[in-house]
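sry for the spam today, last one i promise. C-alpha cells for design, 506 residues
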C-alpha cells in the first residue's frame, strides 16, 4: 500500500487560497488503511457568501461569460492538457481518498474526465438555436443563448474528480461562474482541479470551491438568493432537501440521484457475455455507482446456468491493496458503508434469500483497518424485498427468474428509480421493444455501464431530472432569450386600436 501523503488543502474563493477554518478542519482518511491523507477547512455560511459574491462579481464584470466561445474553449483545452499531465498524481490522490483501485482511477476516470472537458469545450462553439427569421411578417426574431449566471454544484464521493468535471464542464463552457462543494469524504482532487483551472487561465472568481458539511455548505448554496442554479449528484433524499431549499428562490434545479438498475437476461442471450457484463456492472467501484447492475432478471430456462457462471466470476475477483495492479476490487468508501452493506445482506438472508457467493467482510493481510467487502451474489429474494427495491451501494447483486418478456419489463420497471437499465438478447426486435418500454434514462443492449461524452446521462422518476454530458447538458446551464426587431418603422401599428382608437376600416 502506498504511503498516504498528509497535506492541508485550502478552499479556493475568488482565485485565492482560503485556509481560515472557523469551524475547524475536516480530516480525509484512507478507507484502506485508516491513515490521514489530508485535511480541508470545515467551511460555513460566510464562506458560501464569499464564494457566491465572487462568482456574481465575475458574472457582472463579464470576465468569463463575455469572452467568445473560442477563447473559453481554449482555456478548457489547456485544462484538459493539465489533467493529462498530472493524471498519475491525480489518480493516486483519488485512490488514497476513495480506496478504489488505482487502475480504475488512472485508466478510466482520468482519461474520460479529460475527454469530457474537450467535448464540452468544442460543444459550446455550436450550440443549437433558431436562426433569425420573420414569424409575424413585420418582425425579425432571433434566439440568444446566454449563461444562466451563478451555478452551484454539489458532487458525490464515489467519483469525486469525474463528477466535478460533469458539473463544471458545461457550466464553464457556457460562460457561467461556479461555486462547487465536493463531498466531505473526498474533497482533495476537486481542489486540485480548481488549482489546475487557474493555471489554465480561468479568471479568478469563475470557479470557487467551498469545503464543508452538506447540511451547512450545501444547504446554504441551495438556499442562496444569488445562486441561479443548483446541481446535485447524490441520493434521492438529499435531492428532495436541495429541491425544497431551492424552491424559496425558484432557482433552477438539476438532480442526478440514485438508481436500482435492472439487467434483463433473455433465453437467447450470450450467457458468457451476460455473466461477465453483470460481474463488471455490479462490482465497478465496489458497486458504489448509481448505474451499477443491481437486479438481474434471468429467464427461467437459463437462470441456473447464469447464476453458476456469475458466481464463478464473482469468486475470481481479487480483493486487496488498491495500488496493487493485480487488485480488481479495493475498499468501499468507509467502514460505516461496509456496515450498511452488510446490514442489507444480513436482512436479506434473514428474510429467506440465499447467499450464493460472498456475503461478508473481507480480511486483507496487512490492511486490518480496510473497508473491504466481498462480492456478493444473492438468489431467492422476492420482488418486494428490501434487497431488490432499495439502493445498497455496495458489491451486491441479486438474481431473480422470469418466464415471459412482458413479465421481465414489468419487474424491471417496478422501482421508484429510473436511471439505467440493460437488456441482453440476440433478437433485434426484442431489444428494440425493451428499449422502448424500459422506464429509464439510459438503456443499453448487450452491455452495461458504458457512457460517451457525446451522449446524455440522466434519469427519470426519483433518479432526478436534467442531463449530464452531451450537448443536452447545455440546456441546464444556458437560458434562451427571444430578441425581436420591428421592421416597418411605422409609429402606428395595426394592433394599437385594441388599447386606443377605433378598429381600422378595411
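last one done:
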Amino acid at each position: 500500500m502506498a504511503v498516504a501523503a498528509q497535506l492541508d488543502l485550502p478552499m479556493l474563493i475568488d482565485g485565492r487560497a482560503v485556509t481560515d477554518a472557523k469551524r475547524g478542519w475536516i480530516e480525509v482518511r484512507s478507507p484502506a488503511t485508516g491513515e490521514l491523507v489530508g485535511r480541508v477547512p470545515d467551511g460555513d455560511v460566510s464562506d458560501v457568501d464569499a464564494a457566491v459574491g465572487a462568482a456574481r462579481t465575475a458574472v457582472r464584470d463579464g470576465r468569463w461569460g463575455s469572452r467568445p466561445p473560442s477563447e473559453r474553449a481554449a482555456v478548457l483545452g489547456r485544462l484538459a492538457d493539465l489533467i493529462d499531465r498530472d493524471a498519475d498524481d491525480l489518480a493516486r490522490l483519488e485512490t488514497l481518498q476513495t480506496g478504489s483501485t488505482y487502475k480504475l482511477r488512472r485508466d478510466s476516470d482520468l482519461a474520460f474526465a479529460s475527454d469530457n472537458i474537450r467535448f464540452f469545450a468544442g460543444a459550446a462553439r455550436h450550440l443549437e438555436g433558431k436562426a433569425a427569421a420573420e414569424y409575424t411578417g413585420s418582425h425579425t426574431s432571433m434566439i440568444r443563448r446566454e449563461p444562466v449566471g451563478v451555478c452551484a454544484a454539489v458532487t458525490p464521493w464515489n467519483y469525486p474528480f469525474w463528477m466535478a468535471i460533469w458539473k463544471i464542464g458545461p457550466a464553464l463552457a457556457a460562460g457561467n461562474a461556479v461555486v462547487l462543494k465536493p463531498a466531505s469524504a473526498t474533497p482533495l482532487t476537486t481542489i486540485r482541479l480548481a488549482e489546475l483551472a487557474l493555471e489554465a487561465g480561468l479568471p479568478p472568481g469563475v470557479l470557487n470551491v467551498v469545503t464543508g458539511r452538506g447540511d451547512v455548505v450545501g444547504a446554504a448554496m441551495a438556499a442562496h438568493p444569488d445562486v441561479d442554479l443548483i446541481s446535485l449528484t447524490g441520493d434521492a433524499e438529499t435531492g428532495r432537501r436541495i429541491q425544497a431549499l431551492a424552491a424559496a428562490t425558484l432557482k433552477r434545479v438539476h438532480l442526478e440521484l440514485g438508481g436500482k438498475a435492472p439487467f434483463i437476461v433473455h433465453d437467447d442471450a450470450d450467457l458468457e457475455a451476460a455473466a461477465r457484463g453483470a460481474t463488471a456492472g455490479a462490482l465497478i467501484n465496489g458497486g458504489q455507482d448509481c448505474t451499477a447492475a443491481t437486479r438481474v432478471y434471468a429467464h427461467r430456462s437459463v437462470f441456473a446456468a447464469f447464476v453458476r457462471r456469475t458466481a464463478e466470476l464473482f469468486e475470481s475477483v481479487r480483493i486487496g491493496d488498491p495500488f496493487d495492479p493485480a487488485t480488481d476490487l479495493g475498499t468501499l468508501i468507509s467502514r460505516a458503508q461496509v456496515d450498511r452493506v452488510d446490514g442489507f445482506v444480513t436482512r436479506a438472508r434473514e428474510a429467506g434469500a440465499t447467499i450464493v457467493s460472498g456475503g461478508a467482510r473481507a480480511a486483507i493481510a496487512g490492511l486490518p483497518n480496510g473497508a473491504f467487502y466481498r462480492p456478493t451474489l444473492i438468489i431467492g429474494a422476492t420482488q418486494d424485498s428490501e434487497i431488490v427495491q432499495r439502493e445498497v451501494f455496495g458489491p451486491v447483486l441479486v438474481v431473480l427468474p422470469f418466464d415471459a418478456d412482458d413479465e421481465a419489463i414489468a419487474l424491471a420497471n417496478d422501482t421508484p428509480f429510473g436511471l439505467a437499465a440493460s437488456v441482453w438478447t440476440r433478437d433485434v426486435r426484442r431489444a428494440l421493444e425493451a428499449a422502448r418500454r424500459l422506464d429509464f434514462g439510459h438503456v443499453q443492449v448487450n452491455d452495461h455501464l458504458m457512457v460517451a461524452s457525446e451522449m446524455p446521462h440522466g434519469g427519470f422518476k426519483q433518479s432526478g431530472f436534467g442531463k449530464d454530458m452531451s450537448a443536452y447538458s447545455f440546456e441546464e446551464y444556458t437560458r434562451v432569450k427571444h430578441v425581436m426587431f420591428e421592421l416597418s418603422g411605422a409609429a402606428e401599428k395595426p394592433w394599437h386600436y385594441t388599447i386606443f382608437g377605433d378598429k381600422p376600416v378595411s
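The chain has a mean pLDDT of 96. ok im logging off now
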